[in-house]
User: Fold these one by one.
Assistant:
Number 1:
Amino acid sequence: LAPWVPVVGLEIHAQISSNSKLFSGSQVQFAAPPNSLVSFFDASLPGTLPVLNRRCVEAAVMTGLALNCSINKKSLFDRKHYFYADLPAGYQITQQRVPIAVNGSLSYSLCIDNKMSQMVTKTVRIKQIQLEQDSGKSLHDDTRSQTLVDLNRAGVGLMEVVMEPDMCCGEEAAAAVRELQLILQTLGSSQAVMAEGQLRVDANVSVHHPGEPYGVRTEVKNINSIRFLAKAVDYEIQRQIEELENGGTILNETRAFDSKLGCTVPMRDKEGKQDYRFMPEPNLPPLILYDAKSLPANMNHQQVINIDWIHERLPDLPSVKREKLVEQYGILPEHSFTLLNEDGLAEFFESVVKHTQMKPKKVIGWVLNDLLSYLKQHSLTVKESPVSSFLLADLLNLLEKKEISSTAAKQVLAELWKGEGKTPLEIVKEQKLELLQDQKELEQICQAVIDGQENE
Amino acid sequence: AALKDGLRSQVSAALKEGRVTPTELCQRCLALIKSTKFLNAYITVAEETALKQAEESEERYKRGQPLGILDGIPISVKDNFNTAGIETTCASNMLKGYISPYNATVVQKLLDQGAVLLGKTNLDEFAMGSGSTDGVFGPVRNPWSYSKQYKEKSVLKSHSEDEESDWVITGGSSGGSAAAVSSFTCFAALGSDTGGSTRNPAAHCGVVGLKPTYGLISRHGLIPLVNSMDVPGILTRCVDDAAVLLGSLAGHDPKDSTTVQDDFKPFELPNLTDVSKLSIGIPKEYHAPGLSSEILALWSKAADLFKNAGAKVIEVSLPHTRYSIVCYHVLCTAEVASNMARFDGLEYGHRSDMKDSTESMYAATRREGFNDVVRGRILSGNYFLLKQNYEKYFVKAQKVRRLIANDFVKVFRSGVDILLTPTTLSDAAPYTEFIQEDNRTRSAQDDILTQAANMAGLPAINVPTALSERGLPVGLQFIGRSFQEKQLLSVAKWFEKQVQFPVIQLEEVKRHDNGVFQHQKSASFS
């Protein structure tokens, strides 16, 4: 049997973190009462016009720079037409001809064979990033044969990030998306929480034999978490392989991931291929961005965006942060990977290190093994940890000063989880876990034990 | 003060001096609207709110604190501009009963300066047409149909015909606004101009019709036909008044990203006496097929007028003029198809009772809400925007548009200041004759002389010039350089003074205008 090469590309929509929408002044807010955040423009009232939100452009530029893209100093807006209840104007304003950023890359890490100790770095090319409007939401009420439309989300700014088909499996796709999520959260350009719809991923999957052209691809939608992304992609790859090996063909179709069944199913037929009748958006002039070189002297800086200025102010990206952690604390790369992978864990670790004499190389074990596993077991986030970094630091100090053994320390920690407000020292005293340092006292105890044994 | 007085020179002064009050003016206009109802110029008359605005204005005058020249001045607005609390229909079933929650920027500006909004004027449905005959509220009648001047000339033929059917069209699509100004029911009106929709009816109704430079006046709140060509248009009875309106409306609007950022300085029109430094261009392509010999002669006479006054008058060429109609057709229908996509009955406007599915509801709503003209343009536009057709039609048309615009650039760069052309091919046609051809044919014919200015975004103005043999108005058009409205209007004003276009003699106006008649000298041009 000839081997199969799976090919996976991703289209990711990240909701921009901004106060107001991409082209109108209405607020951006999750879970507000239906139709309470809708401006005249969002509702497509006739005669209203789009006005570009500066913050959204900055978010896209930041993201483009963080993904090593070329920022297009001139980009254009287009209308993409289709009729749907959640699209009031009958078209979406997007960037089809010339998007704001192109030709970037994203590096991400994977563990080989699930061993944390063997990490490998992979890269996926970023085709482009474009600014576009989010649609509203429609809820189908089949019992009453009606569709309920909520336009709160209509017009919210999105960055569509297109990743080239450089990935080969669910794990890679998941890792790439995870890294993108961390980057977006670090930049603040998107909160990127999948559960709140701030990050939506569609996967394009195909398979082919080595040396042959790419196979027909399917698009997989309705993926609601990174875990499901990996599952959906792997399922679809398998499905396609089986289909082809049984002599079948792959249709160029859109499929939905059913998380309950763990499989992909064809989506309702959208009546053949859509022709979106793209047309330039006539109400928005081309978006012109500047850098230090091209910025005219007399320009009002409120009116322009300077790419270099934004570049200078980018925060440390996750990959840089990881390196710094390794360098600064002498921990292993896989350690720093895990630290950044949990929201707040890196800060927790650094706080513990700051408040303890124990070496970071030893602290990391306590943080990653003891603390993190407990949190995971109880589905808690770092923020929700009953053991604060100060408490853990206190405990580790006791251990470091050899006032308790490491076994005793684990016992104290177990007690600390109860969150009863006791300090480590208090618990040590309560449970009489102090290490005896006095030589004579130790000799006496040993002697007593030996004597005890002889009596038997 | 009389209804026919110019704003700046007479009415404003009269208001300030208390010789007439805003309430009186308003009441006179409202009464005249009622007695000229047969013109069908108005879709909605906002009597209550207008009187209230007039009262408030009166208070300000009493306190000696009027907001400006426009305070207390009755104005009408084409029914494709959003007016908060007052129905905005675009003469379409789709928006019958639609009460907008916001004012168009230009409407707000007028109200902020104390203008009195009398009502919304009639138009072709969604501004698609050149006759103001294709709206759901019926056609607009040209006031000149009932003028002494026209009746005198048609005495010979009308004895066998029903006088009722003899009336002539206003032109379009801002026919209601043009008729309103022409019949003295308001001092100025807002229209819109996409391919000539302000200048065309201005010419047929004997009023001044100004199309400003694209990007000078905000389109926020103007229900769009072609976003890349639409401008709010200004209709007045004299060029000075157009300058006043322009000054109160122009300027950057943050709500409209296509308005220019530069500061606009309202100007007072100089009284040009010396035109010897001017260079007037006569584009030979505007000698279009179908141009009546009458208008051709007038155009020629106008050119001579400038020449005799010392101006340099030269023939120029705008070689791509002949492509402008077909180019406009592609770009206009494409934008229409896009702009009309929002009318689905879901958020506002007409919604069909069809409930089988969302899509069937959409389809039925749009079939019921739009007339044939609108639907025809939507279908054409969608065809041109199909992926397989986009390059061939839309992109090609954009390129041709660039060529048309460049024609003007070249001519203006060669030293020509202003272009002088006819506005229409002939005087106003009788309604019964006009409707013999369909909207598309008529638009293609009638837009030929006005359309290119929209393609190029240039300012242009119709100045009423003379009466035709049938006793109907004929106007001539001046086209200027981008953002050089001051020069354009100065030349137009000079020309206006030379030709002394006659005042319309309307029975109804005589009855309502008790003031002293400002009998303008009828040293008419022809």
Note: Chain B touches chain A through 46 residues (CB under 8 Å).
Number 2:
Amino acid sequence: MKFAWLDFSSKTSEVPGGMAYHSFLLEPITCHAWNKDRSQIALCPNNHDVHIYKKDGAKWTKVQELKEHNGQVTGIDWAPDSNRIVTCGTDRNAYVWTLKGAQWKPTLVILRINRAARCVKWSPKENKFAVGSGSRLISICYFEQENDWWVCKHIKKPIRSTVLSLDWHPNNVLLAAGSCDFKCRIFSAYIKEVEEKPGPTSWGSKMPFGEMLFESSSTTGWVHSVSFSGSGNRVAWTAHDSMIAVADGEKTATISSFVSDSLPLLCVTFITENSLVAAGHDCYPALFVYDAGKGSIAFGGKLDVPKQSAQRGVSARERFQNMDKKATSEREEATLDTLHKNSISQVSILEGGKSKCTKFCTTGMDGGMAIWEIKVRWNYSIDTVSHFTFYCTFQGKRSLINHALDSNRL
Amino acid sequence: MAKNTLSSRFRRVDIDEYDENKFVDDQDEAAEHLGPDSAEVDNLIRNGDMMTAFHIALRNPPINTKNPAVKERAQAIVLKVLTSFRAGDIEQAVRSLDRNGVDLLMKYIYRGFEKPSDNSSAILLQWHEKAFAVGGLGSIVRVLTSRKTV
């Protein structure tokens, strides 16, 4: 019986060959985006600028500062093929940056919004991008050749609050949006000027611009993050009431949700068609596995460095003091034992795409960026995982961080 | 000074009511639960059948009504059951609940914290500790974010 297994390892700087956790700043990294070959990262260091860092062996060096926004940059996306960066900010503007020689030059895009922009995403074909904003609408922007500028169309109904997150379906037309009115929705962002009419999908076949094809029933929390699966047939979202849910387009959009006992998750992405990685205020990425047959989501485990158990003896005096101060005689750790020391706000896929991710990256409010590797071996004969375990390599030692989950399709 | 400034009637107008962008929750068509049956619960407490009283008290939570009297009544009944429990039985009672039950219990516990009386806070803290062990931080987050309060 061939076994396939998932291996999550986060190499720290102690392990040769890998820079797994890099502390860029002492302030939060508001948002980040990678270029195509993952040699450069653009991030916003919690101010009005975008800094571009280039990988230099094991170090990161800053190559350019993009200064154009008048407000905090809330979203960055880097189109891999056309090599353009789009940024959006609280100054209600978006800029498309193109590389001219060695310099990035901005082009203003008029979004026609009267509140801050919150998130931006290039479409898969990179001929348009979507911006979610506090104006309770989504701006779909595309380039008009005749006038040589970017124009935008709005998707308004029935969004009733800030759009916090966006994700495109692989067909370049459907767009998932999570917003503060507690709903995740799928809209059509079909622009006839730049593309052909799309074929039918599992979410529907009629897709005029602005049509809503799916709306989740209310959770009671703001929807922080949405993600389509690699095929586009499933959409997952996380909400502020500590809930993660998946809607399956192939099963007439039935929703399965997982009510978690941890703090809310702020970002989520599919890493295979059935599994998700999500992270948030608990400062560690967690794995969730969706079972289409049962229509349920299971918690797959915490993916992080193992707890360093330093069991020193507790002196009698310490016990007494703890009893007096904290009403308990155990010594509690005052520091977090996770890799990230503050909430993780964004997760991005580095290698393998959403169907067979082998590497992903997290950035957070501690100003650090961590790269996580997954080693997957597929059981090609039946295309199933029958048994998997998670490992973490930390300081050169491999340790088991999670036990196997049986009979889960991966 | 103009005469208009003498009138302050305009100050009583709630301008947010007239904002066309004001967010209104979806009106759920769910049945209006009106809280547990007080007589039944009292009977069970008198007979000493605490577990059943507990489960009945947590039935029909008045989450869909806006009537404060109904909510007060339900809260009083649940509080009575919670305070009549022996400390040792609390854990078992919490274990017998499912996920939604633990979330609902947490809502009642926090509602109880709002208006402390006599010894209620001490008992509620014991319940809180046990419910937290099962529901975790997520259940507390759901108390805070829930639009439909108990």
Note: The mean pLDDT of chain B is 86.
